[in-house]
Amino acid sequence: MKGSFRLLATFGGRGVSAIGGMLFSVAVARAAGAAALGQMAILFGILGVASAIACRGYDMILLRSTAREVDPETGRGAVAILYRAFVRVVPGAVVAGVLAALVAYSGALGTMMPDTALAMLIALPLLTLLMLVAAFFKGLDKAWFAPMFEIGGISLVASPLVFAARLGGPANPVWSIVAAAVLLAMIAAVLVRREASFGHKPAQDPAVLLQGGQVDFMLIGLATFVVQAGAFTFVGTALAQDTIGLLRAAERFAMVVSFPTLAVSPFIAPRIARHARDGNVDGLIRVSRKAVIASIAAGGAPFLAMQFASGPLLSLMGPGFVAAAPYLHAMALAHMVLVATNPFAMLLAMSGRERPAMWINIVALVAAVVSYPGFSALFGPWGFVAAYVLVAVARSLAIAAVAITGIARARRPVARSA
Q1: pLDDT tens-digit readout, 336-369
Q2: Are 115 and 52 in contact (CB under 8 A)?
Q3: Which of 315, 20, 18 is nearest to 160 (CA)?
């Protein structure tokens, strides 16, 4: 399959994933209102934080190792790397599931949710393993499969179950997520079997390939989640659930602006990894430049839609959600900055320079954990929005600055020798 068709297939898969995340939010909002959507935002925050910790960065290490060491045409050796990643992640995922269930049961984040504790105990290990499967397909340069196994694809499968709740289906949306994750885990087993060769090992021992970078990538993944989709994890004690529901609705639509990053990043990741392995600085520059242009071009249309058609879009969740339009305008701006700078984050991650990105993300994580609940308590929903935008924009620009500076330094000797 040619590169252009690969990109189109990846965009298509990511588009379906984005629709899935949005459809799930619409389903919850329509079925139970703003307060239920706010509660789901907190629950998804707990799941996201716990899964990022449980995965311990092995998803990104798996992606990079597979892209560098495995021929995407044959897939030989890829399953051995995936299996080793599973072995390392499963125990931590089980422990994280127990802790996530205890947090949900205790009400430590603002409200007790005992009915969701068992569901989270089951969901967390499944979501973590599906994260590895998604990274596996990205590393094989088959990124169009990946969205199916990420939260957007899982949400898409879960959405009809939420709608069916009124007809006697699972009353708690979290159980819909569990059912969807079980189904997709079975599909993943079939696809892995079909797309990669069993019985082969990569040139290096998979245990060696998966060494190094775990802490860096875990902190990067954790910060990325908390700053963006998991922003509501820590505001349950500062804002009412119906207010969180309005903010979550705005954030879900704002996320559509950054949809191009979800398609472009997995497409360019294996290419950056191979260029970095070969020391091809010009190739890194070329891929990054094209990725930035493509991301901005693709993100422009949804950004304008969020600015000028926010009312009609939010009304899809119900007439009461139109009040979130001003929040959406501001959040969409933050995601447009993310669109323009995200290729630089992938450049750092796939070229072995994740350490600078880690420090930037640590600062962003601390800023988010402190400012999101703090500003919310002091200034209400607009305090949350201000903190959300400032942290997201500052983090994105800092990563872009580090990546551009690094690539300029790497090119300087090449320019002198020429």
Answers
A1: 999 899 889 888 888 777 788 889 989 999 999 9
A2: no
A3: 20
